[in-house]
Amino acid sequence: MKTYSLSFSKPFLFLAVLFVSAASYAQEVNWISWDEAAELTATDTNPKKVFIDVYTDWCGWCKKMDKDTFQNPEVAAYMAENYYMVKFDGEGKDPIEYKGKTYKFVPSGRKGYHEFAAALMQGRLSYPTTIFLDEELNMLSPIPGYQKPEPFLEIARYFGSDIYKEKDWKAYTGEAGK
């Protein structure tokens, strides 16, 4: 009886199992518009906090954060449970209503910027910047720069679990007294 070597089968099987495992653990981020988030905070009986990812199309670090941080299964699951997630183009053209004011695009330099992005980032246009708002759309904090999954999740939990109401950031992270 002749036997055949199936040396390709083990790597193939490994890849198939890896693909199925990754697909089953993948959590898709449900990005919504600003208007949808504002509506949900106003109408939900138990509203969530709002998270805004301020990005631009040309920002490489924004794309890296999308891929590495927001697609991380643990980050995606926590954020979906605790926040309405808004992706906002800092150079977008559509007007935004926030707290009785209309924010618009401002042409400036080669591209321009959106007044809402500038307001959220407290005048410091830096991409990416992540913004945390409470359930009533009040500013908790802007966090500028790329964040890896673990440090990002620590920040998201600080606000998402209301730890910020009882502990300042240094006490929460154990940096107090250092």
Automatic annotation (TrEMBL):
Q: Tell me where the signal peptide lies.
A: 1-26
Task: Provide the species name.
Answer: Maribacter caenipelagi
For whether the record's keyword set contains S-adenosyl-L-methionine, the answer is no
Output the InterPro entries linked to this UniProt entry.
Answer: AGR/TXD, Ssp411-like_TRX, Thioredoxin-like_sf, Thioredoxin_CS
What name appears for this protein in its UniProt entry? Thioredoxin-related protein
Instruction: Kindly state which keywords UniProt assigns to this record, in alphabetical order.
Output: Redox-active center, Signal
Domain Spermatogenesis-associated protein 20-like TRX, first and last residues per copy: 26-97
